[in-house]
Amino acid sequence: MDSDLFSGRRAERFAQLLDEANGGRRHHVRSRADGELTALVEVGRRLTVERPTVEVDAEFRTGLRAMLVATAEREGVTATTGAGAATGGLGALLPAITGRRARARGAILVGVAAGAIALSGISAASENALPGDALYGMKRSTERAQLALASSDISRGQLFLDFARTRLDEAATVRDDRLGFSAVLDDMDADTRQGVRLLTTVAAQRSDPTALDAVDTFLAGQRRVVSGLLARPDHADRDRTHRSLALLDAARRRTDALRETIACGLPAPTASDTLGPAPTTCPGDR
């Protein structure tokens, strides 16, 4: 799979998806990158439809402009070079490029901008949104964009664990609503599994337990907060909470077993499940 989010093929496909999202003609093609790119297109669409009232500071605006200009020059969007191209504004960079090439390369700039904005002003506007709030969909779209922009499985795994923490914060605000509470915990557990699976896989493949440290730190803090929910008199669903605790305990057993497998020098396990590699028993433990 092409790991460069803004490669030529992906940029052109991104341009097509942007066209469709804005009412343009449908392109009867499919790409393996659609899942990742659709998240960024959704962020771009929401930027237009639900423009947040957030003031982006001057330092960020200057940095974003510099990044876009540098990207344009590197990708060959600019028709000139030197000081004139750097100071003439983005509008001066595009006239010499037309048709399909302009849309594809322009999508690179849009993608960079969408990713940067998703991690700044949009996050600021929606980071405290809760399920049912108008900006909650924006918050979740921003999270998907962050995953699409992540550069490695370690980064993606850590993001999923961060999102699981966020879902737990949201669950703590749900009172006397069993369906809403259960739905948030379902999302939290899904993020937990994804994050644990990515990080345990990295640890097993590299025979290096470092990635497991992040998992164990997450599990300790998460279990403490989830357990605290049970003590609340207005707690929505105790049985559902116990299922989330069981998942955290299973993940901790998995990291402990993987540490033992790595310590005794066994090869990476070939079997796996929703929590990642299923380790074999060290010879001395049989």
- How can the largest sheet be summarized? 2 strands, antiparallel
The H/E string reads HHHHHHHHHHHEE
Structural Rg: 22 Å
Fraction of residues in β-strands:
under 5%
Explain what you see:
This protein starts with 7 loop residues before the first helix and ends in a 9-residue tail after the last strand. The chain contains 11 helices and 2 strands, in the order αααααααααααββ. A two-stranded antiparallel sheet has the order 1-2. The chain has helices spanning 8-21, 34-49, 58-75, 83-87, 99-118, 121-126, 136-149, 153-171, 178-206, 210-230, 238-263; strands spanning 272-273, 276-277. With 286 residues, it is an all-alpha fold. Helix 9 (178-206) packs antiparallel against helix 10 (210-230). It is 66% helix and 1% strand. Mean pLDDT is 76; it is low at 1-6 and 77-87.
